[in-house]
């Protein structure tokens, strides 16, 4: 099997040749952001929304701005071509770059930009979950609104889920309301519309979430954990998949495969 290529700091290189400084603050401090997006038919889906969120996150953290959209599109196209991939999962990682010991960033940091591409693997349409007990989503932290490299709360939650025989975990916020899953937004069917927790409740402003809100197919609403057991249907969604929750805390919950399939069809459409 041919060695994969990555895009690192402006150039393609074999993955085994990629080198990042041991002083890179993304590695030592989690000082950076990332975007995960799907490529289908050789082109990234909803790239404008992802790149806009990347820029917003960089601005919020005071990172050096990433290259302009045209250069990023060219980098993604070159990477997909080099790896002979048409359907892929792309990840763009932007860090503050190398710096000396200490928390305060250097006055003139040099950002690190890494883009990787792997074959797209569709997730199973159904998923089981627990309500996480080992950590909570801090809705007061600016990081709850940024796709930062600090993902340890999600790692803790996913490890708890695995230990308890489930595939994912629902994280509550500090008030005890449902915020999101470990790597997906939460959607709860209320009547003919889907409710999703507000960003103010700790939900990451996800791209799929934003698209559904823009089309009035979802609305923001506070969601108590008890509602997850009584709802007509619950889904976990991100830019790579929409999965219907079938078991929560070891209990079967109500499902609506037709409603979930309709929502999935909207999200999988490149035009919507």
Describe this structure in words.
With 272 residues, the chain is α+β, with helices and mostly antiparallel strands. The protein has two domains: 5-119, D-amino Acid Aminotransferase, Chain A, domain 1, CATH 3.30.470; 126-268, D-amino Acid Aminotransferase, Chain A, domain 2 (Alpha-Beta Barrel), CATH 3.20.10.10. It has helices spanning 25-28, 47-61, 69-82, 152-163, 207-214, 227-230, 257-268; strands spanning 5-8, 11-14, 32-40, 43-44, 88-95, 112-119, 126-131, 168-172, 178-181, 185-190, 193-196, 218-220, 234-237, 242-248, 251-252. The strands form two sheets. Strands 7, 8, 9, 10, 11, 12, 13, 14 and 15 form a nine-stranded mixed β-sheet that branches. The protein is globular, with a radius of gyration of 19 Å. The model has no long low-confidence stretch (mean pLDDT 96).
Descriptors for this entry?
272 residues; D-amino Acid Aminotransferase, Chain A, domain 2; six-stranded antiparallel β-sheet; 7 helices; globular
Range of strand content = 25-35%
What is the residue-mean pLDDT, rounded to a whole number?
96
Domain module count? 2
Assembly classification: single chain
| Structural classification | alpha+beta
Contiguous runs where pLDDT drops below 50 for at least 5 residues:
none
The helix/strand series, from N terminus to C terminus, equals EEHEEHHEEEHEEEEHEHEEEH
For the largest beta-sheet, the strand count, sense and barrel status come to: 9 strands, mixed
What's the helical proportion of residues?
25-40%
CATH topology assignment of the largest domain = D-amino Acid Aminotransferase, Chain A, domain 2
